[in-house]
Amino acid sequence: MGHQPERTCIGCRGVFSKADVVRVVSGPSGAVIDYREKLPGRAAYICPRRECIEKALSRESLSRALHTNVSVPQIEVFTAVLASAIREKIRSLLPMAARAGMLAAGASAVDDALQKGRVEMLVFAEDLSEGTKHKLLTGGLPPKKQATLFTRDELGQMVGRELVGVVGILDKGFSDAVWSESERLKGLLNKHL
């Protein structure tokens, strides 16, 4: 691994890897979250944690960092847009893992993969029954990385099936990426996923 670029959060003033902060640029209508890091222009960086966002948006920090007077979005709007961007990133990763053959979808496929010790991360649907979840977690070798995201219908759409209550990610790279995004979402929303 080579040198990893670092950025300073304008909220807490901590120095983080560029991958751990969110890029914000000035747009025609004000500050814009550049989650995919494709927009041109000077950028400011903010930790995806509620307290850092509040600090960054409550003072003149954003205008100072961007070197221009910028309309600052409301904290709730900024948080909702950022949460949506994170969910979209996860929505793109899960179908990629499925197409690559690195995803077990559905309780029986996940249980089989768990028994073989192949699952790197579990993603449970928000509307999955506790009984099914408990059965999966006690039957095989559950990984430490687990998140509860989306509904059974949404997970099913991502993997091209009707309803899916649980998926198991079988690849370390995909699991690390989904885990990183789910942890980011958890820190942003201040809740357990």
Provide structural commentary.
- With 193 residues, the protein is an alpha+beta fold.
- The protein has 2 domains: 68 residues, 2-Layer Sandwich (Hypothetical Cytosolic Protein, Chain: A); 108 residues, 60s Ribosomal Protein L30, Chain: A.
- Strands 6-9-7-8 form a 4-stranded mixed sheet.
- The model has no long low-confidence stretch (mean pLDDT 91).
Largest sheet: 4 strands, mixed
* CATH fold descriptor of the largest domain: 60s Ribosomal Protein L30, Chain: A
Proportion of helical residues: 40-55%
The stretches of 5 or more residues where confidence is low (pLDDT under 50) are: none
* Overall average pLDDT: 91
Enumerate the strands of the largest sheet in spatial order, edge to edge or round the barrel. 6-9-7-8
Question: How many helical elements?
Answer: 7
The radius of gyration over CA amounts to 19 Å
Structural category is: alpha+beta
Query: Which term fits the overall shape?
Result: elongated
- Count of the separate structural domains: 2
Question: Got a strand count?
Answer: 9
**Termini separation:** 30 Å
What share of the residues does DSSP label as strand, in percent? 15-25%
The CATH class designation of the largest domain is Alpha Beta
CATH architecture designation of the largest domain: 2-Layer Sandwich
Order of helices and strands: EEEEEHHHEHEHEHEH
